[in-house]
Amino acid sequence: MFYTIIKNFFLKKIVTKKLLKENSFSSNEKINTIGLLVDETYFGEKEALIAAIEAKGFKKEAISVLIYKDKIKKKEAFDYPSVSLKNISISGEISNPEAVTFIETPFDLLINYYDVNKFSLLLISQKSKAKFKVGFTTIDKRVNHFIINSLVENYNEFTDELFKYLKILNKI
Q1: What is the reported pTM?
Q2: Where are the domains positioned within the chain?
Q3: Fewer CB within 10 Å of terminal CB in the chain, N or C?
Q4: Cα 15 to Cα 38, 56, 67, 87, 116, distances in angstroms
Q5: Is domain 2-19+32-168 in CATH 2.40.128, yes or no?
Q6: Which residues contact 44 (CB under 8 A, 6 or more apart)?
């Protein structure tokens, strides 16, 4: 427990420092690939969220998912790549190869589907090579290019608003 508090303290310093230097450039390209970062600690309906995104005209192959969970049990299995605080060092390095691949992939759109400020999630979002990042209003405004005022439980409302504005921004 004490180690977790210290780790979160240092992750907060790292994320804050990187966000101060962050350039909020976003591209004007059309969206073909989507990265979805989901905090499964608070939201367990990832399949329904993916189905809502697919209903907007995207193929399942174009959607990559990374699951974050505070603590992953040894026998717990996931359908998608997963990462936890245990996979992030105190210096902000990520040891999970699936998470590193997710971060290095230049998605056209990254959906940060979490509404609680966890510095491990903010670190992953900040390090991501995604061209356009979307998230909730409760998260640090410097992480995302576009924010939506909605509740995590209302994934249909979130996707409707997201794709309405992506159409206005001429991204789809």
Answers
A1: 0.84
A2: 2-19+32-168
A3: N
A4: 19, 33, 20, 16, 15
A5: no
A6: none
